[in-house]
Amino acid sequence: MVSRGELFAECRSIIAQRDEDTADFDTTCIFQDLLGDKTPMFLPKEPVPDDKAAEIRSLAKRRAEGYPLQYLLGQWEFWGCNFKVGEGVLIPRPDTETLVEQVLDICRREKLKSPKIADLCSGSGCIAVALKKELPEADVYAVELSDAALGYLKQNTAANGCGDIHIIKGDVLKRETAMSLAGLDILVSNPPYLTSQDMSELQTEVTHEPASALFGGDDGLDFYRAMTELWKTSVKVGGFVAYEFGMGQHDDVKAILEKNGFTDVELRKDGGGIIRTAAARNTIETDLI
Prior knowledge:
Keywords: Methyltransferase, S-adenosyl-L-methionine, Transferase. This protein is α/β, with parallel strands linked by helices.
């Protein structure tokens, strides 16, 4: 049998052929997952059973081919919680924690202990679960259309002790979906926002993620235009909309919000210094709320 140290060096070399920068991290994650050991190299001379070694080599080869590490592992961490992921659902990203933080700041500032929140394009449910964890008295709705993503959404809400999140299968671009939820304190969404050009230049890893969760129209803004128009009557007067978006889209998203009667637009940067999210207050009176 091969030792852990020998196998690690072998697999690291395989992955490094594609990406030297992430080879150590990727190999460590694969070892941790398949060996069930958080510090797999603490015992480098420990022998690895042949069947496990074969599995580890197989994952290393797939990673070297550009298959997402998160899909290989079948799970990924977000906001301190583990989320099941696989083909058919968008991989949670650290940038999205900025959106969660902005919503939580709104709740603290406005003293909202039990807000009614709708997470549109919920995907894996990472935003909905994170908010429910931090706001246990909140009434949280997660709206998702994709059957594949819904499967992960249901698993993740249950596995993270958030089985009371209301899961709705629906198209966020349909008026009937928007009409099914009213009186929202906060509408939050990380919708598809990649442009046509972005889609033509995707990294290999990202091509494995569902295009429906990535492509936001020619300029990447289709969902913001449609959702803001359709859902503004679902947000109560004084309530908030909070969006994540791509690099350089902040001015356009701000303009869309203001055109639809939202004010006090607050832009926020992610950990990399990129303006990543916007939150705005609804000031439009409507008989539909």
